[in-house]
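quick one: zinc ion bound model?
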Amino acid sequence: MAVTKMNVTTGRTKVASHSRRKQEASFVCPIPGCGSTFTRSFNLKGHIRSHNEEKPFVCPWPGCNKGFARQHDCKRHEQLHSNYRPFSCEGCQKQFARMDALNRHLKSEGGADCAKLLVSKGITLPLTPPKLETMPTSDVWDGLALQL
Ligand SMILES: [Zn+2]
Ligand SMILES: [Zn+2]
Ligand SMILES: [Zn+2]
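yep, here:
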């Protein structure tokens, strides 16, 4: 007889406290190595802008455009370019950063034998510089940086 059902409508109040406070962070920063997430797209946009502003020092070498937060890092990176010596003399294996430096070598007394060798191979002097497209991309520079 005295079976009283207590569980009528008492569960109501619990539902309110269960509301989800956390929103889905569905906007992810696309900058490699960052991975920051945001709930709103304009927050992400502002964040990406801050990435760019944090790198005011941009490498002046053509085709590179790498940005750096500190001038020191930028300068150090620039040295990679100047240390890069892609032009080697076929005669003496000496390496040069620029084509005109190699040509100057071939015209000099010390490079006379090298020049003769190149001409005997059918190569016309002075050598012509390669097109800018053959310059390494910034990915390659990153690889060089790792080797240091
Ligand atoms: Zn980011
Ligand atoms: Zn650079
Ligand atoms: Zn040489």
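The radius of gyration is 32 Å.
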